[in-house]
């Protein structure tokens, strides 16, 4: 997570560690990346190495039976990223994990973003959760099996791990107070998953037949959420100077797909989709890259959730408009923000029920958009 003037560009190379040192190697990173010329190491794809989920303050490496794992500890203590490589030196996957306070009052770790190798390309999955501190979020936690449904890559132990902090609840705010004084206008951080669309355009389709019976106009709110980024809609006074446009190409019967098929689709359906099957999932965007650029992005809204598509989302429901704005942020290349100092931003990975705050971009969201598409 970084500001507009603090973008990491160094390449990352994971080092093979001798058996005698496998649990002892810990390096404190003075910059967001390190390099190794070890020919036995694992070359991490540039789209992963260039785009850490925040400022890396420590790293730890260990051998595992299938290869190598490295954990990057992120400033603030609420997020880490574990990268796994095969014994042949090939990148396998990475997972960004966040610490939350679960409804049972105990800390739980949830996957936020997962990237996997698919041949010569990559597939990323970015998930959006409810605020589990609310009754509505707790109900989804219980519905999906709670802690038993969580599957994360564990962190490599390190004495240099920052003190554990749980991620703050999603911020709610009366929409009548959205103005330049909004807390989101002072939160500057953003995270980038990739280099976005080389064409500076995102063409998407909606599988309208999958939209469940939702109060309001769900189809229209899906469109509105996507086009927030076209217009840089925000209460902070930031002008729309970004050369990026999303285009709605029409309705389709094609489904969102866990493998690339060349069609960008928004649909409703099961959480059992790519690496999105986790507890309480609201929605998930699966994106594919070739090199550093996006080649496809599919968005899945979980149809079993209590949705609303009215002007104001009632308590106990989740806003289609806000969720569409968040998911289309992933589709254009942005990652999740983390830490309590980003919980008013659209790209924060948790959403409160009855809230419409994320319909509008915050300062960090605008900074991220301008960074990818200057």
Chain-wise SSE layout:
Blueprint: E1 13-14, E2 26-27, E3 42-43, H1 46-49, E4 56-64, E5 67-74, E6 79-86, E7 91-101, E8 107-118, E9 121-130, H2 135-143, E10 201-206, H3 218-231, E11 245-251, E12 265-269, E13 283-290, E14 293-302, E15 307-308, E16 318-319, H4 320-331, E17 350-351, H5 363-372
Parallel strand pairs: 9-17, 10-11, 10-12, 12-14, 15-16
Antiparallel strand pairs: 1-3, 2-4, 4-5, 5-6, 6-7, 7-8, 8-9, 9-13, 13-14
Helix pairs in contact: 3-4
Radius of gyration, CA atoms, in whole angstroms: 20 Å
Tell me the distance between the termini: 18 Å
Task: Give the overall pLDDT as a whole number.
Answer: 87
Overall form: globular
Name the structural class. alpha/beta
**Residue share in helices?**
10-25%
**What's the total count of β strands?**
17
- Treating each run of at least 4 consecutive H or I residues as one helix, how many helices? 5
| CATH third-level topology of the domain at 175-372 | Collagenase (Catalytic Domain)
**Major sheet size, sense and barrel closure:** 13 strands, mixed
Report the β-strand fraction as a percent range.
25-35%
Low-confidence stretches: 2-40
Order of helices and strands: EEEHEEEEEEHEHEEEEEEHEH
> CATH class of the domain at 175-372, please?
Alpha Beta
CATH architecture of the domain at 175-372: 3-Layer(aba) Sandwich
CATH superfamily of the domain at 175-372: Collagenase (Catalytic Domain)
């Amino acid at each position: 997570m970084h500001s507009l003037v603090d973008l990491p560009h160094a390449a990352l190379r994971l080092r093979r560690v001798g058996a005698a040192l496998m649990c002892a190697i810990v390096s404190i990173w003075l910059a967001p990346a390190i390099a190794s010329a070890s020919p036995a190491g694992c070359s991490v794809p540039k789209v992963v190495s260039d785009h850490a989920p925040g400022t890396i303050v420590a790293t730890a490496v260990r051998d595992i039976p299938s290869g190598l794992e490295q954990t990057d500890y992120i400033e603030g203590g609420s997020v880490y990223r574990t990268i796994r490589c095969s014994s042949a030196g090939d990148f396998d996957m990475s997972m960004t994990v966040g610490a939350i306070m679960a409804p049972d009052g105990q800390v739980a770790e949830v996957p936020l973003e997962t990237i996997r190798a698919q041949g010569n390309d990559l597939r990323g999955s970015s998930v959006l959760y409810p605020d589990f501190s609310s009754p509505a979020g707790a109900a989804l936690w219980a519905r999906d099996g709670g802690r038993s449904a969580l599957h994360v890559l564990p962190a490599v132990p390190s004495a240099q791990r920052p003190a554990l902090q749980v991620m703050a609840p999603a911020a709610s705010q009366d929409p009548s107070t959205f103005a330049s004084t909004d807390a989101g206008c002072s939160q500057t951080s953003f995270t980038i998953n990739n280099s976005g669309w080389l064409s500076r355009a995102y063409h998407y389709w909606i599988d309208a037949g999958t939209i469940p019976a939702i109060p309001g106009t769900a189809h229209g709110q899906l469109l509105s959420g996507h086009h927030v980024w076209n217009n840089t809609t925000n209460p902070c006074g930031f002008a729309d100077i970004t050369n990026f446009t999303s285009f709605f190409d029409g309705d389709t019967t094609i489904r969102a797909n866990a493998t690339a098929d060349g069609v960008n689709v928004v649909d409703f359906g099961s959480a059992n989709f790519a690496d999105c099957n986790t507890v309480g999932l609201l929605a998930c965007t699966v994106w594919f890259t070739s090199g550093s650029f996006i080649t496809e992005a599919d968005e899945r809204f979980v149809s079993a959730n209590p949705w609303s598509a009215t002007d104001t989302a009632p308590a106990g429901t989740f806003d289609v408009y806000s969720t569409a704005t968040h998911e289309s942020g992933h589709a254009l290349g942005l990652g999740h923000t983390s830490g309590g100092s980003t919980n008013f931003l659209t790209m924060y990975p948790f959403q409160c029920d009855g809230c419409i705050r994320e319909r509008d971009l915050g300062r960090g969201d605008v900074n991220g958009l301008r960074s990818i598409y200057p």
